[in-house]
Amino acid sequence: MRGVPIKVAIAGVGNCTSVLVQGLKFYSGTDYKGLWHPNVAGFRPKDIQLAAVFDIDSRKVGLELSKAIFAPPNVARRYLVIPKGKVMVHPGVSRGDVAPHLSGVKLERSSSEDVSKHLEDVGADLLVNLVSSGSDGSSEEYARAALRAGCGFINCTPSLILKNNKLAADFQRAKLPLIGDDLMSQFGGTVFHKGLLGLMVKRGVKVSKSYQLDVGGGSETLNTIDEGIKLAKREMKTTAIASEVPYKFETIAGTTDFVDYMGNERTSYFWFDGSSFMGSGISVDVYLRSSDGANAGNVLLDVIRAAYRCMKIGRLGTVGEICAYGFKSPPKPAHFEEAYTKFAALYVR
Ligand SMILES: NC(=O)c1ccc[n+]([C@@H]2O[C@H](COP(=O)([O-])OP(=O)(O)OC[C@H]3O[C@@H](n4cnc5c(N)ncnc54)[C@H](O)[C@@H]3O)[C@@H](O)[C@H]2O)c1
């Protein structure tokens, strides 16, 4: 493994990747407006270089990256002009778990061995998995391809990669980091929900019920209203939120509808019901508007730099503090404030 640049490969050239690519260009100088942590583990965003990208959508495969990130059905905002580069979208792997939004679309696929070879050829250090929700078999295949190529793996999807004990042990044996599962946005519904619940608990309010109902646009929202994916994703979000309250209460969190013209925006509606002095009622109704891709940007830049640091110092396998800080379903559930404090103490300079 060399020093900088940190060579990163990405599976899935969707809206998150679009904003990440734009963010890397935006933060390639010294203007850090909007950047949460300019220096993580001694690295700046300019130390990250995109070395390879994979997709299976024929509208993106074969395109140069600066074009592919704006190809349909991507709807993430165009923040700046991205100069033409040399990275072309390579065909990825698919294990028959094609996302609902790709039904009827011509696909371009390759083998897991071909993905490994491409990762080796470009000298990738880390593979970031940003494929569609519900692609569980394909996500596992990307993890195996990374392992064969000697790359660390960061799973941003809700597929349960770290819960696969064999895979986790294989990464440990190969001395590579395995980070995930399911990215937690910087200021998205999950952390907002956790934060308000935590505040109620800290102020002695007995929480009895809460919900978080999301509506949004973009292909990810379209996929997550598919019944099977919706239930799996709801389960993960709900579990993540419940870990913030030290007793049982009723809660539901998940996507409820797709609104085409919302683009990459999302509105999360929250309701909290609790009681206090002599059983007096306390309730909160509030909503949060955010932009999915942009909400992922800061956390992605942080976990990439921290994971690379782990590779350099030989801290391998499932790295607890990175998973707890940046993901909804880490191996060990953690209160989000504690998780942040640990991450910041170790990596933020
Ligand atoms: N803030 C966030 O946006 C956020 C937060 C948490 C988790 N995530 C997760 O990140 C992932 C990406 O989100 P997004 O909004 O960019 O989704 P998206 O739908 O915009 O993009 C997904 C991309 O993956 C591609 N794809 C599907 N199957 C593939 C395969 N087998 N190989 C290669 N490419 C494949 C699709 O063609 C598409 O380009 C999702 O799993 C989502 O749950 C995102």
Q: Any idea of the CATH class of the largest domain?
A: Alpha Beta
Global shape: globular
Strand order of the largest sheet: 3-2-1-4-5-6
Question: What hetero molecules are bound to the protein chains?
Answer: nicotinamide-adenine-dinucleotide
**Which percent bin holds the helix content?**
25-40%
Mean pLDDT: 96
Largest sheet: 6 strands, parallel
Protein structure class: alpha/beta
Please work out how many helical segments DSSP would assign.
11
Q: What's the CATH superfamily of the largest domain, by name?
A: NAD(P)-binding Rossmann-like Domain
Unreliable stretches (pLDDT < 50, length at least 5) are: none
Strand content: 15-25%
Indicate the CATH topology of the largest domain: Rossmann fold
Over the alpha carbons, how many angstroms does the gyration radius reach?
Answer: 20 Å
In whole angstroms, how far apart are the ends?
23 Å
Structural domains: how many? 2
CATH architecture of the largest domain: 3-Layer(aba) Sandwich
H-E string: EHEHEHEHEHEHEHHEEEHHH
For the secondary structure, the number of strands is 10
Walk me through this protein's architecture.
This protein is an alpha/beta fold. The protein folds into two domains: 6-184 and 294-347, NAD(P)-binding Rossmann-like Domain (Rossmann fold, 3-Layer(aba) Sandwich); 189-291, Dihydrodipicolinate Reductase, domain 2 (2-Layer Sandwich), CATH 3.30.360.10. It is built from eleven helices and ten strands. The chain has helices spanning 15-26, 65-68, 112-122, 136-149, 165-173, 189-202, 218-224, 227-242, 292-313, 320-326, 336-347; strands spanning 6-11, 48-55, 89-91, 126-129, 152-155, 178-179, 206-216, 250-258, 265-275, 281-291. The longest helix is centred in the C-terminal third of the chain and has 22 residues, at 292-313. The relative contact order is 0.16. The mean pLDDT is 96. The structure holds nicotinamide-adenine-dinucleotide. The site of nicotinamide-adenine-dinucleotide (NAD) has 35 residues, from helix 1, strand 2, helix 7 and helix 9.
